[in-house]
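Blinded run. Sample ID left blank on purpose so nobody reads anything into the name before looking at the predicted structure. Input follows.
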Amino acid sequence: MQAAPPSVAHGAVTFAIALPLQPVASWSGLMALAPLAFVFLRRAPPAYPGFIELIKAFLYRASAGA
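Blinded prediction complete.
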């Protein structure tokens, strides 16, 4: 299974961000995200692999000493 082309992925993200800002959003109960949520969403994905590597290093060291 292949990933979607970047243009499709960007289009989906843009649609998901814009949908709660449309007039029809009130009909379905959608609410716009707080600006701080966008900061988190921008920072979290790149930080996740680094965090996992830190945890792996810690667990490897802990298991080697056991």
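Unblinding after everyone has recorded impressions. The chain has two domains: 1-32, 35-66.
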